[in-house]
Design brief:
- By secondary structure, the chain is an alpha/beta fold.
- It folds into two domains: 64 residues, Helicase, Ruva Protein, domain 3, CATH 1.10.8; 184 residues, Vaccinia Virus protein VP39 (Rossmann fold, 3-Layer(aba) Sandwich).
- Helix content is 39%, strand content 19%.
- It has a seven-stranded mixed sheet, with helices on both faces. A two-stranded antiparallel sheet has the order 1-2.
- The longest helix is centred in the first third of the chain and has 15 residues.
- It is elongated, with a radius of gyration of 20 Å.
- Keywords: Methyltransferase, S-adenosyl-L-methionine, Transferase.
- This is Release factor glutamine methyltransferase.
- It comes from Paracoccus chinensis.
- Belongs to the protein N5-glutamine methyltransferase family. PrmC subfamily.
- One of its GO terms (biological process) is methylation.
Length: 276
C-alpha cells in the first residue's frame, strides 16, 4: 500500500498539469474526503499507507476533478457562513461572495423572510439560524433543489418552509424581508464561464437565457405586494449590474436603494425598502 503523502503529491501534480487552479488545496480536500477525516487530522493519516478502498476512493475523486467537476459536488458539501451545506448537481454551489448578502440582511430589521430561488437553502437557513424565533419560506422551481434544501434544514436543526414556485407564483404571504441570489449571467457570457460552473452547475440557476436582468424584473414587479410596509428587499447581483437593478427597483417606487460591495470591492448586493 502506498503512503498517503505520495498519493497526494502525485494527485496534486496531475491537477497542476491539467491547469486546475488551487490544485494543492483541491487534492487535500479530496484526500480528506477519501479518508473521511477532517483536514486537521490529515497530517497523521498521510504518514500511513492508504488502504486499497481508500486509495480507490481518492483516485475516483481525482478523476472527477480532472473532468472539472467542482470539489463541492465530489465531496458533497460546501462550507458557507457558519454552516456546512449539502450540494448536488441540482443546486448552485454557495459562493463566499454570497455571504455579503447574508451580512447585509442581518443589518436589517425583520421577523419574516422569503428566499426566492433558494437552491441549497444556504441563504435562508444561515439567516434563520442567526435569528431564532423568526420564520422563513424558501421557494424554487426545482423540486430536486427543494429536497436538498429540506435536508439541509433538517441537518442544521433550523425550521423553515419550502415550496415549489416560479418566483412569487405560489406565494401569497407578505414578509419583512425578501432575499434572492437569482440567475444573473447574460446568455452571451455563458461560454466564458469556467467548466466547473458552465458544465456542472444547473443552467437555470446561472442564466435567464437573456440579458441577465430577467429575474430582477420579475422580483421587482412582485416585491411591493409581497413585502410588509417598510419591508426590505436584498438581492445579489453581478458586479456590473448595480445601476440597472437599482433602476428597476426605483421604477417600482422602492426607497432607500443602496449597493453593498463584497470583500473584493465589487458591487454585490442591492438593497431597497418598501414605503412604510
Amino acid at each position: 500500500m502506498s503512503k498517503g503523502r505520495a498519493a497526494l503529491a502525485e494527485a496534486t501534480a496531475r491537477l497542476v498539469r491539467a491547469g486546475i487552479d488551487n490544485a494543492a488545496g483541491d487534492a487535500l480536500a479530496l484526500m480528506a474526503h477519501a479518508l473521511d477525516v477532517p483536514r486537521h487530522a490529515l497530517r497523521d493519516a498521510l504518514s500511513q499507507p492508504l488502504p486499497p478502498e481508500t486509495a480507490a476512493r481518492f483516485q475516483a475523486a481525482v478523476e472527477a476533478r480532472l473532468d472539472r467537476q467542482p470539489v463541492s459536488q465530489i465531496i458533497g458539501f460546501r462550507e458557507f457562513w457558519k454552516h456546512r451545506f449539502r450540494v448536488t448537481r441540482d443546486t448552485l454551489d454557495p459562493r463566499p461572495e454570497t455571504e455579503t448578502l447574508v451580512a447585509s440582511a442581518l443589518e436589517l430589521p425583520w421577523a419574516s423572510l422569503l428566499d426566492l430561488g433558494t437552491g441549497t437553502g444556504a441563504i435562508l437557513l444561515s439567516l434563520l439560524a442567526e435569528r431564532p424565533g423568526t420564520r422563513g419560506l424558501g421557494v424554487d422551481l426545482s423540486d430536486a433543489a427543494l429536497e436538498v434544501a429540506r435536508g439541509n434544514a433538517a441537518a442544521l436543526g433550523v425550521t423553515a418552509d419550502f415550496r415549489h414556485s416560479d418566483w412569487f407564483s405560489a406565494v401569497a404571504d407578505r414578509f419583512d424581508l425578501i432575499v434572492s441570489n437569482p440567475p444573473y449571467i447574460a446568455v452571451e457570457e455563458m461560454a466564458g464561464l469556467s467548466p466547473e460552473v458552465r458544465d456542472w452547475e444547473p443552467r437555470a440557476a446561472l442564466t435567464d437565457e437573456g440579458d441577465g436582468l430577467g429575474a430582477y424584473r420579475a422580483i421587482a414587479a412582485g416585491a411591493v405586494t409581497h413585502l410588509t410596509p417598510g419591508g426590505w428587499l436584498a438581492v445579489e447581483i453581478g458586479p456590473t449590474q448595480g445601476a440597472a437593478v437599482s433602476a428597476l427597483f426605483a421604477r417600482e417606487e422602492m426607497q432607500d436603494i443602496a449597493i453593498r460591495r463584497d470583500l473584493d470591492g465589487r458591487d454585490r448586493v442591492v438593497l431597497a425598502r418598501r414605503e412604510a
